[in-house]
Design goal:
CATH class: Mainly Alpha
Shape: elongated
Keywords: Signal
Oligomer: single chain
Strand order of the largest sheet: 3-4-5
Largest sheet: 3 strands, antiparallel
InterPro entries: DUF309 (IPR005500), TTHA0068_sf (IPR023203)
Number of helices: 9
Helix content: 40-55%
Amino acid sequence: MASFLHLLLLLRPFPSKKLIFLTPQNPQSPPIFSSPSRNLKIYPDEKLFKRKNNFNFSLSYRFSTEDFFEDDEGAENCRFDEAVLLFNSRDYHKCHYFLEALWNKAEEPRRTLIHGILQCAVGFHHLFNQNHRGAMMELGEGLCKLRKMNFQSGPFYQFEQEISATLDFIYQTQLELAACADDLCLTMDGSERSYQLLGSYAAGQHLYHLERDSNDILYIVFFPEGWHSSGKPPRVKVPTLHATEEHLMESEYN
């Protein structure tokens, strides 16, 4: 699996400060992000991690379920179908607690699958709370776990494909912001500096909003303040999960 830094080596200088939406060369194989071990350490029971430049932001998915469920019985009675309903209604924060409760008692390979979905939920929570880099990291790690299952068809495969498309969409739109600002244009050359910038220029800013089309399909739309385009703003369908408890119990490594 390519590292986050290695992926940036594929990028080229932007000719001007004008924002340009990049079309992926291979939409079927969007970039996957991993945590570079020399730059990032994730502590299971902490909510923050620290990079070399002392820039902190919330990333870890391990918020204690004790903060949500009043007793052990509440966590024990969590159902996967409830977690799916919460995910599809975009209550990603609450969904996380249900998935973590399921993950704590699951065995492989379902444990890996639940973990992947859990990280996707946390990724979307980050995205809609303007932690764009955290969103990319969590969605990337979640996608890796989904791909580890090697699904070839079915609801989990469809979910994996939609997460992949969303991650590629976020990655491409973040490149625009990382490469060009109002007073600065940098070459994304895979350096430590360029990596730090990716996802950081617009931290805390509203870049994405939700929009329904005429067919009642919900999209994530990239339209930051001051952004101008002659065409429609880039968008991607909001991923939905159409799996049931039965699908989960039948899941195996392929």
